[in-house]
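thread: overnight batch results

M.L. [08:02]
morning all. the overnight job finished for the chain we discussed friday. pasting input first so we're all looking at the same thing
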Amino acid sequence: MDARATALGLFRGQKAADAAALAPGLVTAEAEPEADLAALKLLSDWCARFSPAVAMDPPDGLFLDITGVAHLWGGERNMAEDLLARLAAGGIPMRAAVASSPGAAWALARFGTGQMIIPPGEEAASLAPLPVDALRLATQTAAQIARLGLATIGHLAQLPRASITRRFGEDVVGRLDQALGRAPEALVFRRPPTPWFARLAFAEPISSAEDLARVTVDIAALMGARLEAQGRGARRFELCFHRLDGQVQRLAIGLALPGRDPQSIARLFIPQLERVDPGFGIEVVTLTAQGVERLSRRQRRLDEVREAAPEEGVAPLVDRLTNRLGEAAVWRAEAWPSHVPERAVARRPPLSPLAGVGWNPERPRPLRLFRRPEAIEVVAPVPDDPPIFFRWRGAAHRVRFAEGPERLAQEWWRRPFEDADPARVRDYYRVEDEAGMRFWLFRVGLYTAETSAKWWLHGLFG
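M.L. [08:03]
and the structure it wrote out:
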């Protein structure tokens, strides 16, 4: 509710007919909660220029953790005024407050008059004249407190805590303690906060491709120097270009191994710069490091020939492929403890540590396992014998050598034992045709005279 609506006597939750009676010229529209939430998400992303830790307070609020960043604007007041001015220029009405606790800032922003900043230690005095609704209580609880004549937070705070809990429940005491900074409050940040944050602001907006590449190298060097000073490396980096119109252009890269080399980081970002639309210009660039781990400098031996370990040598190649093709397209196969072929392989990051579990050499598996087995036509002397001839994709293959069967049943522990079906048993054969190609075939189900055998091709050995 803006000031004009409040002056007319309108309030949240009021019936439309009553509101129209107070304001005959009132124009109404259907509420769009999903669109409001989407707009709030965009606004929270835009606020990343002021703080890397932004939490949403639907339907119309935001919490910004400005610890350690207010000095970039010359103080908390200048920062709040700059935020309000930018939003006002975009046609977004807003009230802001700064306090040492989220509850106190929430109360002052919505119910305070004049004061914008609560100095540390003065929460009780600043919140005392505000109504009890400023404690973010349930509607029924706030109404019950008001009926007892406790109109302000100061009146409520004067009561004994045991009396407040007995009358109104523990939630009231908890909200009061949170507002006064006596109890912590957990906020769910839209983007996980990280102390590894670098920022560059420009006196004049930039827009050319050369300038974007240059500032990418500069901010990567700034972040790399800080990581090196702390003996750390990061696995993910997010580069944000903040435009004059408030939009944020985001680029992200990932590393197979923790790293901090500025040239390597910038080299991965630069090919993506063509996707950045500078608009009327970019005024701020930020870089965030995530997945930060301890990374010690590797000391070389005197008799060492290589300059880097093998996994470090292939890491740049993996990084380029991953950032160009996507994380889902670059992986390595690792053995998984399951006798079912489809479940015996797990995807792992390319350079992740080996689990130490390998495939059983007594049970060789094909180099290429099909996503889905393909049906084939087979000729066998008797149903339980290996095939002597099969047709796959229209081509005939005469079997020269065959080995098997290897019987695999379904994993009965994944379903009730009563549901175990003998028709799902597979008999696998390793066969070689006259051209030297090797295949992995299987027959489904146990042999019965009533049904004909069904054969499938599941993989190729090479």
